[in-house]
Amino acid sequence: MLPHAYHRYFLWIAIAATFCLLASQLTSVHRRQPKQNPASAAETAESLVETTALRPPPASEIPIPRQIWQIFFAPPGIKTLDKGGTYASDWISMAPGYGYTLMGDEDATAFVDSSFASSRPDITATFHSLRNPAQKSDLLRYLLLWHRGGIYSDMDTRPLVPVEEWLPPAKRREVGLVVALEWDVARDGYWDENTRDVQFCQWTIAAAPGHPVLGGMVNHTIAALHDVARQQGKALDEADFSDLQVLNSTGPMAWSDVVFDEIRRRDPLVEELNDLMDLRSPKYAGDLVVLPVESFRAESSDEWGLNGWRKNRRALVRHYYKGAWKAQG
Ligand SMILES: *[C@@H]1O[C@H](CO)[C@@H](O)[C@H](O)[C@H]1NC(C)=O
Ligand SMILES: *[C@@H]1O[C@H](CO)[C@@H](O)[C@H](O)[C@H]1NC(C)=O
């Protein structure tokens, strides 16, 4: 029994070795070819150019820095985050060469105070007045992206492809803001009266530092928060926010208004939100790109490769809707 098994073992090694030898000779023949023939030398030069074009551009050439941000504000009674129960490691492995920062309560306070206390005390005061962790997390993501730039993504999101593949390298050199649709009524149907027919998600956003859309969003958010408090005749830290007011002050309704205003300013063909309906491929407006609804809202079938059509349309990030954003109490 045993000698026979060994015999087969050696036979396989011999076959494998022959195959390797053949393969290496074939590749060396292939490699030598361009030197013998000027036409294929030109081809090689061309394919070299192509490879260079596909290589991720150096940091100095891209507006959006290679940095991932995530935020975790501990719910009452929970002190620490079990990182094993998150997709943090997926973000790290899908973003080689990127910085990764998970911000908790204390880091957030330190970041906001050190970045804005002297230049924009309105920002610091507003941030510290927010009691709802969801609204704090909303405002913090805009502040991080505006001040530092990079990719922000919620803890309940999971990247499906390497983040450097979100855009072709040539676009990577130009794009300063990446947003995706959260809802597209032409493809998703009607949801509810609080969801715009076309809405942009803010669970995943990529931005260059200082991008005017983020600067505008910070201002819009601060004004909207104080408007709600003023209507109630209360200080911001005593105001009560309905779900709708959360969505419309710091959440996706507010984000959609600000992003859309900027697209309309840049693209004369876009007059109303519905002009962005039924988006099937990335839409560029200056340095801003809008990705179709499946890009950051992949379904499980995209993740498992079952849905060919959507997969071809590049599902990039899956969102698991675990966030407890709704007004507490
Ligand atoms: C935001 O508000 C500040 C202070 O009120 C102002 O100086 C700045 O120009 C505004 N930025 C944008 C993008 O609207
Ligand atoms: C949403 O916020 C905007 C700007 O703050 C305000 O003008 C509008 O009335 C709000 N809409 C709702 C439904 O509260």
Structural descriptors:
two-stranded antiparallel sheet, alpha/beta, 329 residues, disordered N terminus, 13 helices, eight-stranded mixed beta sheet, transferase, Och1-like, GlycoTrfase_DXD_sugar-bd_CS, Spore Coat Polysaccharide Biosynthesis Protein SpsA, Chain A, binds 2-acetamido-2-deoxy-beta-D-glucopyranose
Question: Can you give a write-up of this model?
Answer:
Strands 1, 2, 3, 5, 6, 7, 8 and 9 form an 8-stranded mixed beta sheet that branches. 47% of the residues lie in helices and 13% in strands. The longest helix has 35 residues, at 2-36. With 329 residues, it is α/β, with parallel strands linked by helices. It has a single domain, classed as Spore Coat Polysaccharide Biosynthesis Protein SpsA, Chain A (Alpha-Beta Complex), CATH 3.90.550. The protein has 13 helices and 10 strands. Residues 1-38 have low confidence and may be disordered. Residues 224, 227, 248 line the site of one 2-acetamido-2-deoxy-beta-D-glucopyranose (NAG). One 2-acetamido-2-deoxy-beta-D-glucopyranose binds at residues 212, 215-216, 219. This is Nucleotide-diphospho-sugar transferase.
Provide the number of structural domains: 1
Helix-strand topology string: HHEHEHHHEEHEHEEHHHEEHHE
**Contiguous runs where pLDDT drops below 50 for at least 5 residues:** 1-38
Number of DSSP strands?
10
Supply the helix-strand structural class. Answer: alpha/beta
- List ligands, each type once: 2-acetamido-2-deoxy-beta-D-glucopyranose
Distance between the termini: 73 Å
Oligomer, anyone? Answer: single chain
CATH class descriptor:
Alpha Beta
Strand content: 5-15%
Percent of residues in helices comes to 40-55%
Protein name: Nucleotide-diphospho-sugar transferase
Keywords: Transferase
Pfam family, one: Gly_transf_sug
GO molecular function, one term: alpha-1,6-mannosyltransferase activity
